[in-house]
């Protein structure tokens, strides 16, 4: 039947060469003459159990029974029967005598008696776990008796083992044989190896060897008696020594006592069928059994039942034994999620249970399932993962995040749901530190560039916050290219007040990354203009930021005065208060109904943190009931915040005019900001030269007569102000911009002037300004405030320019009126 292999090196069996498993330490108890060892696979080191049975010769009757057990265990498969992996029989020598040994390798299990002592359960938790174990063994016995027409013959504590997931499994099949009911006349034993069964476990008919009566009895008669013996042993905690002890029912639960008595009936035909015990016993109706049974048939449940079950499961898990939850429920739950049978609420339960595990066990049992779930197309699963990323993000390795997690998470940046986009953004606070520089600079920053012009103000604000938080993970070149452009060009000009506040906070927190030239020429001018912001919170933060950056400038001045050259930016540390505020903003949502272009500044005097919106992207402003709501007019607001970032143009080329990249531009981002790369730091000589320029050179756009007086007044003030030339330097005549459209005078100034980004924009008008036909006299200081020529047409015709200046205006107008009525005129 079995092939004899090579001999063992030593009598202990640990030197077995051909067995692909390593034999470890033995357990204290095992069934019959078998020895039970811990073991591991030589291939992958996975744990196994190894059973061995030795005899002096191949004809040993114990070995014959053992071979029967190996054959039966190999062929009978059931979830509640011990899983067979491998078997072999070897012949060797133990000293001078010959020795034959049978080895059976199974899944890793532990004797039931030892496991019960280890768990040491009591009260309701003990009864619930025993009920689940008995339920499993009863199902195995019912399968053998009713479905296979087999008789186990020796059901007891020794024949039950426990898996790593605390499941009870039946083994010890040495006595197992077919139920020979048709051969009623035969007096030969039906159970060939019944002599292996202890007398205390034998029913009366088996003790007397009444094989005719046994064959007339139901197939379950002998094993029903064995179930009664098992119930007595586990509840009494004592090993059965004689049959009379079964009459002691003090330790048997009252709900199980009637069934216990029916199992041990003296008449074999009246003994309870194990299948009825499963279906009808009140003892099996408890939370643990019902929970596990529901999860085992989860695929057959509808979505309503699943949602209801998983919402109740956290409370149920609190009441169950902790070790049972971690070793039994958690693996079943992880498997259900991995194969798609569990709903999204199950992930919350999985993470709650996983929090009870040690870190190494969490990484082994929970983390692989979570990583696989990131590839799920179920939006509810994705939302749940992002909402709880802080619970498992630290356990993810950098390689897993960069290669397996981020590619799936990144799809949420472009999701149609604003709620999912915002959750994806917030998850980067945990995942970004684990990304490689290639992924961080090449992928993540492109997504953030688009989110900073998102239609939802909360997303734009939190994008700025995130950039401030992950700045330390960027390399120097990326920080130089991204931070100032993201914070000054976009954040400080956002129409949503908290977004402007976030831009100021981000600048202060990342102050150590800027050199003195950037602070003086790009940061201070953009922050200073916010000191007149309509929102009080923005103004407060602007003043605080100015104090910080002016302090840096003052330190630089003192060091340069004393002749010490140092990097002043590196001497300025991150303010703890500002950093804390950024973190709190990044972990919350800012809400405002409508798009950014429709926003009016919101004043919240007591808090800068606003709570978040819902998944339908409908945002509601979260302000205190006592906080005033103030709406600024468009004219006053435009002086502080240029047009909304959502009204994007074709890229960063128009960043100085408040334009931003199109959402569909894959290459749009902070790495192609030409206007901010071309200007060089203005030297003292250039500033002095700008002060000496005549104030009459800047071209004024043509406006109607109703706006002429304000222009004259501002020009007069500029004439009286010696710094007027710095605020509005003279543009070069041949200035080129990235915008192919006609350039207004204000945008032309911005190309040559580092201060142009904060200059008040020219009044908007749909009428294209006319070029003056006469050249201003440089010697006339009043030319700049002279009233502009009146404009009566959007765009003059080329024929009109030939006669302008040669005819008096009054005859010209009269001639046009006469020529309009004449058919032969070729005038207007």
Automatic annotation (TrEMBL):
This is Protein kinase domain-containing protein. Residues 653-676 have a biased composition (Acidic residues). Residues 2-284 form the Protein kinase domain. Residues 697-715, 736-748 have a biased composition (Polar residues). The lineage of its organism: Eukaryota, Viridiplantae, Streptophyta, Embryophyta, Tracheophyta. SUPFAM superfamilies: ARM repeat, Protein kinase-like (PK-like). HEAT repeats lie at residues 366-404. Residues 631-828 are annotated as: Disordered.
């Amino acid at each position: 039947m079995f092939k004899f292999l090579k001999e063992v090196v030593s009598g202990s069996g640990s030197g077995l060469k051909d067995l692909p498993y390593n034999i470890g330490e033995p357990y204290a108890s095992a069934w019959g003459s078998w020895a039970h060892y811990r073991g591991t696979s030589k291939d992958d080191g996975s744990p196994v159990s190894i059973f061995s049975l030795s005899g002096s010769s191949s004809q040993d009757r114990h070995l014959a029974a053992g071979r029967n057990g190996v054959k039966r265990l190999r062929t009978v498969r059931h979830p509640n029967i011990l899983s067979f992996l491998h078997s072999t029989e070897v012949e060797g020598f133990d000293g001078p005598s010959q020795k034959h040994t049978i080895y059976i390798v199974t899944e890793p299990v532990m004797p039931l008696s030892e496991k019960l002592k280890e768990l040491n359960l009591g009260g309701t938790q003990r009864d619930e776990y025993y009920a689940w174990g008995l339920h499993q063994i009863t199902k195995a016995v019912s399968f053998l008796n009713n479905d296979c027409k087999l008789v186990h013959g020796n059901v007891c504590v020794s024949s039950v083992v426990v898996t790593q997931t605390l499941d009870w499994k039946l083994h010890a099949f040495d006595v197992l044989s077919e139920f020979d009911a048709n051969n009623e006349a035969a007096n030969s034993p039906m159970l060939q190896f019944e002599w292996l069964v202890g007398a205390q476990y034998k029913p009366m008919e088996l003790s007397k060897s009444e094989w005719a009566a046994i064959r007339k009895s139901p197939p379950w008669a002998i094993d029903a008696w064995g179930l009664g013996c098992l119930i007595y042993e586990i509840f009494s905690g004592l090993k059965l020594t004689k049959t009379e002890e079964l009459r002691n029912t003090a330790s048997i639960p009252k709900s199980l006592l009637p069934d216990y008595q029916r199992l041990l009936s003296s008449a074999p035909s009246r003994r309870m069928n194990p299948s009825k015990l499963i279906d009808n016993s009140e003892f099996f109706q408890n939370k643990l059994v019902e929970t596990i049974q529901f999860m085992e048939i989860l695929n057959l449940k509808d979505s309503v039942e699943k949602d209801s079950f998983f919402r109740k499961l956290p409370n149920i898990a609190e009441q169950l034994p902790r070790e049972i939850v971690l070793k039994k429920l958690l693996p079943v739950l992880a498997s259900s999620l991995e194969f798609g049978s569990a709903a999204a609420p199950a992930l919350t339960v999985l993470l709650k249970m996983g929090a009870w595990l040690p870190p190494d066990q969490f990484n082994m049992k929970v983390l692989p399932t979570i990583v696989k779930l990131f590839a799920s197309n179920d939006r509810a699963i994705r939302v749940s993962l992002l909402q709880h990323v802080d619970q498992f993000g630290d356990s993810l390795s950098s390689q897993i995040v960069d290669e397996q997690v981020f590619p799936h998470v990144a799809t949420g940046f472009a999701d149609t749901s604003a709620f999912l986009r915002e959750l994806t953004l917030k998850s980067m606070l945990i995942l970004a530190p684990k990304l490689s520089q290639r992924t961080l600079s090449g992928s993540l920053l492109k997504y953030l560039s688009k989110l900073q012009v998102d239609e939802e103000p909360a997303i734009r604000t939190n994008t700025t916050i995130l950039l401030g938080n992950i700045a330390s993970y960027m390399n120097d070149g990326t920080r130089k290219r991204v931070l100032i452009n993201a914070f000054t060009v976009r954040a400080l000009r956002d129409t949503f007040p908290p977004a402007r506040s976030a831009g100021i906070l981000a600048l202060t927190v990342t102050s150590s990354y800027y050199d003195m030239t950037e602070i003086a020429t790009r940061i201070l001018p953009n922050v200073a203009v916010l000191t007149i912001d309509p929102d009080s919170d923005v103004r407060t933060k602007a003043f605080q930021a100015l104090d910080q950056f002016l302090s840096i400038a003052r330190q630089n001045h003192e060091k340069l005065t004393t002749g010490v050259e140092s990097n002043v930016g590196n001497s300025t540390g991150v303010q703890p208060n500002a950093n804390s505020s950024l973190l709190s903003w990044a972990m919350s949502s800012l809400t405002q109904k409508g798009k950014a272009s429709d926003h009016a500044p919101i004043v919240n005097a007591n808090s800068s943190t606003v709570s978040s919106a819902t998944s339908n992207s409908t945002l509601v402003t979260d302000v205190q009931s006592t906080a005033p709501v103030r709406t600024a007019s468009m004219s006053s607001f435009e002086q502080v915040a240029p047009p909304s970032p959502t009204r994007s143009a074709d890229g960063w080329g128009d960043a100085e005019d408040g334009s931003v990249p199109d959402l569909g531009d894959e290459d749009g981002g902070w790495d192609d900001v030409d206007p901010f790369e071309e200007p060089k730091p203005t030297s003292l000589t250039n500033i002095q030269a700008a002060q000496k320029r005549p104030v009459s050179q800047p071209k004024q756009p043509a406006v109607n007569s109703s706006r002429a007086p304000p222009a004259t007044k501002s020009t007069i003030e500029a004439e009286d102000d010696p710094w007027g030339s710095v605020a509005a330097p003279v543009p070069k005549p041949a200035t080129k911009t990235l915008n192919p459209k006609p350039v207004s005078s204000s945008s032309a100034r911005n190309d040559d002037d580092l201060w142009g980004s904060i200059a008040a924009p020219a009044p908007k008008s749909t009428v294209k300004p006319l070029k003056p036909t006469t050249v201003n006299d440089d010697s006339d200081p009043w030319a700049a405030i002279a009233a502009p020529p009146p404009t009566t047409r959007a765009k003059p015709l080329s024929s009109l320019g030939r006669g302008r200046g040669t005819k008096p205006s009054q005859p010209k107008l009269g001639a046009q009126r006469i020529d309009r009525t004449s058919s032969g005129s070729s005038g207007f």
